[in-house]
Prior knowledge:
The complex is a heterodimer. By secondary structure, chain A is an alpha+beta fold. In chain A, a hairpin with a 6-residue loop joins strand 15 (about 470) and strand 16 (about 480-485). Chain A is globular and about 85 Å long. Chain B contains five helices and eleven strands; from the N terminus they run βαββαβαββββαβββα. Chain B has helices at about 15-25, 70-75, 85-95, 150-160, 215-230; strands spanning about 1-5, 25-30, 45, 80-85, 100, 110-120, 135-140, 145, 160-165, 185-190, 195-200. In chain B, helix 1 (about 15-25) links the parallel strand 1 and strand 2 (about 25-30). The longest helix of chain B is centred in the C-terminal third of the chain and has 13 residues, at about 215-230. The interface of A and B includes residues 360, 450 and 459 of A.
Amino acid sequence: MSDPTPAPDSAPRGTRALRPGSVDPRAGDPEITPDVVADHGLSPEEYERIERIMGRTPTFTELGVFSAMWSEHCGYKNSKPLLKLLPTEAPWVIQGPGENAGVIDIGDGYALAFKIESHNHPSAVEPYQGAATGVGGILRDIFTMGARPIAVLDSLRFGDLDTGRVRYLFGGVVKGIGDYGNCVGIPNIGGEVHFDRGYEGNPIVNAMCLGLMRHDDLITGVAEGVGNPLMAVGARTGRDGIHGATFASEELSETDDVESRPMVQVGDPFTEKLLLEASLELIKSGHIVGIQDMGAAGLTSSATEMASRSGTGVEIDAALVPVRERGMTPYEILLSESQERMLVVAKVGHEAEVQKILEKWELEAEVIGRVTDDGMFRVTEDGTTVCEIPGMPLVDGCPTYQREGVESPEIAALRDMELPEADEPARDLAEAWVDLFDSPNLGSRRWIYNQYDTTVRTGTVVPPGSDAGVVRIRGTKRAVAATTDCNGRYVYLSPKQGAVIAVAEAARNLVCTGALPTAITNNLNFGSPLKPHIYHQMKEAVTGMAEACAFFETPVTGGNVSLFNETDGVAIYPTPVVGMVGVIGDIDHVTRMAFRDPGDVILQLGDNTNELGGSEYLYHFHDLVAGPPPAVDLFLERSLQQAVLAAIRGGVVKSAHDCAEGGIAIALAECAVGGECAVGFEVTLKDSIPAVPLLFGEAQGRILLSCAPEDADDLVELIREYSVPVRRIGTVTEAEAGLSISLRDRELRVEAGDIVESRGNALPRRMDAPVATTPDAAHD
Amino acid sequence: MRVAVVTFPGSNCDYDLYQAVKQVGGNPEFRWHRDRGLDGVDAVMLSGGFSYGDYLRAGAIARFSPIMEDVVPFAEAGGPVVGVCNGFQILCEAGLLPGALIRNESLRFQSEDCRMRVERTDTPFTRGYDAGQVIRVPLAHAEGNYRADAETLARLEGDDLVLFRYVDADGAASPESNPNGSTANIAGIISEEGNVMGMMPHPERAMESLLGSTDGVPLFESLISSLAGSAGADTVGAGR
């Protein structure tokens, strides 16, 4: 099939003769001084290491390359030892960490590629483009594996919505995510958003993507075959996003939203759509051996990482890289983070075929270099070598740091403080119930997901607004479910426990849709690891996540680390986001959260507790982030999840919903108003627990099920077989009967309409006020 | 019955249209926008998406794509042409349907289920519906706000060329049921000759109860059965 004759004009260009060994500074390059080194985010010790590796003073271009590759974003220098704690293996894992994305087997010959990635720093200074390019980047990570993206989710955190600036960031991020994903045509199926002053300076924007492929379509980012050509594919290289990886590994300051904006990349979803189709066609064509997104650190990281995986070297002629403007230096070309670009290693002699495929999609593909056998990362410019670095130490030689972590006494004091009187005799709890839904954290997310195309590709079975999103696999009985979870308040108050809860809750959410939790991608968002109390948070959180992942047999197949999320020294809550995927073997078992028919029996699985720490109730009514987060019992969680899955597979469960933020009162109300038509309920909770923690405490390990009355006895019996506490707490009623909860000493009754209104308006009433469109106008 | 589903650079609902046509027993064929000659197909469908990134104006560049030089004469000769979402925008830009689609009144992309009333059931696209039937179909667009000058609107209403109208659950075309600000709650229209139809909502996304609605099925069945019924005839138009 393949043509053995090299394309007439490409081979000579890609194999231009080089003069190895002579690397001189380019005319006009700045001299390498301690200041220049510091500006590149490298410590004096790291610079010494670079000189030892090079055996000489690096050129300005080489320094830039090291700076990018040894940034936290690419080099994981502060997190690598911790990441090693995470379990990464299981029989169903096809590709673990270290590639563009993780891949798992989901049965019937299909595999699922999935990954989450952060765009926190860019989104803090330019929310629209920051978020849009975050989506673009994660889509490319998926389709470079040979998988077609089938769904995206996003995990977002912002400060309180009462400042114009936060509303500007939130509005811009949502629009950026929507505009990019909508244009490429990938349905958004869920995610989460939290608002808390802990994210005032630094929003979190994590985007997750799922892609589907047949097992044999898998391709990886390798640069194999000495002499094979390197081709730059897709958009041209411009001057945007230079040093984005280094920027993303630093703290922000008050003025950064203006000064750092040029470091933010600009996305073009139209080009992305073409690149997606072209890449998948290219991968199927057999003309290429490897492909990788030119993402963080652009051409530099893609070329060196591909070579490193194959134990080869690469040489690139910077003058051959298609650029957007004249006069770009090799430094700029190597470090540009212009979007929608791919680095492809083609089979020698197949360059013309590659170009033909790209030409069909109205994109360019140019030979810019070749694979070598000397392990060097060599860059030339018109025949002169401007960069020559041994590949291995560049990719893997980044120094890693293990620091001493110490818990912050202030945070420990918050955790241990005495909480306000739990009974709150003065508060009308029915009113509080309705009012809690006005919290942006408990209000309906409709304002967000109505801006996202959720149904394109005709695969979305459960759209956003439920415990997890579900996408069917056409031509099979199967579906995949996905969720993102992390309560940063819990992690802040108790890092290890908070991380365990994040994993447990993600698994619980998947189980509620009928899915078996299968694997995880994680996004570790933290402040500066140089501070002992932040390092403590990282270490504890990763340890907790590792334990929980091992327990639930949900290995981590990849992810992203985002550190230095600080503004003027104030760090975000530690937020290790869990993106979990699960498999539903039979599409008929897909379960939703909403109650369905009046008369149905409501079952509570798991126990209520006298815990209020870290709750939305405390934040909303007392402006407090304090107390110990709820206890979590992994053995009970596992039994609970197994019981619910067995019940769902038994075919009698009509709805399933996890009790999470806001407690059981909120969860019950969500079941009542979360469907197409609201219903009511009569519930009795007899526990000897003060009313506030009983209603609004966030005890873990609880799931609400509903079923037809005639199935209730069997269902209870089935769940008891798993040694899971279960009891009938009430029945579903007509909406007109209202929502009612009877406690030992009082009864709460509210109208469904009041909940619908409070919940429905929580975001619109804040966001549809005169909208700030520029950061300057947005400062209150 | 052979149905060409056109893919422009940036189309992203072409696959969904293809599946919908296949589901009702039609024979869909993808056509790249540079392909010339429609090769004797029975109908043409322009899908949703963001052709050419919707740069300049939604549909404004796609109308100059090579394949449109074949689609226009095909339509003018009476061949059935359907445009959904971006396809509707392209048909308006190409002058095959009157009026224009501007930014949603909210100035935001909107994605939700909408209800539409089927205004006519004597067309090749809607004969499978009941008169006045209210159907539920997803919509997802930023520029679906239908506008036309007064004369055109009068003609659309006078000649019954409005095929679908946004309504509430009771079938009333209220301001609350209008998702994007369209004049007279117009969701879809048909050409005077009755063979060109454009609509903003996505019937191809309402084909299976698993995904929430089957209300799009009659539209595709109508088209395929009309084509079968008129095999050999010059036109399948509504004959007005």
